[in-house]
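Fold tokens
===========
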Amino acid sequence: MEKHYIKLLIWFVSTSAFSQVQGVGINEDNPQQALHLGSTNGTIRVDGLNATNSTYNGGGTATYPLYVDGNGNLTLEFKPLYNSDGSDALDHAILPGSVVTLPAGDNDGLIVGELFNFTIAVNRASILEVKYNVSMDVFLNPAETAISDRRARRVNTYFQVNGAGRKYGQSGKCYTGGSTDGETGKLFNTSTSYISLPAAGSYVIRFYGEVSSGITNSTANTGLATCVKFARGNDSLLFRLH
């Protein structure tokens, strides 16, 4: 009978010890995860991610970011939500808000127009990375008369979440002209910003163009005529979730 008690005790101890093991340990007797590496100086090597087998690994002594896809697979491939990648991201012909006009004698010398928007749905709190390079031409009016009054105009661009709150990715340029023969040319506003999406849900990211001439001597209705035509150059956009 005593032998049976000893066997039962040994079985109980071994079963308890086994039940505490959560996964596989390498150089680790008590793994805390499905795979637990116990070495203090070891690393993980995946031949499928090396320079020989992956076109996204540039080799040499440099390091490269590692990503996880929706299936949990590890990859070096960068897959943003959207990347114009050298192509023209914005076509002014199909953007209804691509022309923003400040009329002469405007009350406060400032006008804002929505250039475009996009919707993003997330299933967790996220950070949205936005990079943009947006072109603009500055004129006196929609007929594209050159500015010649030697007075400055400012053109600002930015994003807002659902059209309200903080302005992200602000970028601005000033323009002036002193002759009808002056060169207008294309200006570009460029910025990178990180937008906080605080919870799961759907968000509309709205992109605005803000045109300002200010007013003279703080006198209302002295804004200067200005017309800015956006997205007529080679524009670029990148959206990426973190």
Q: What stands out?
A: Helices lie at 2-19. The two ends are 64 Å apart (CA to CA). The chain is about 5% helix and 40% strand.
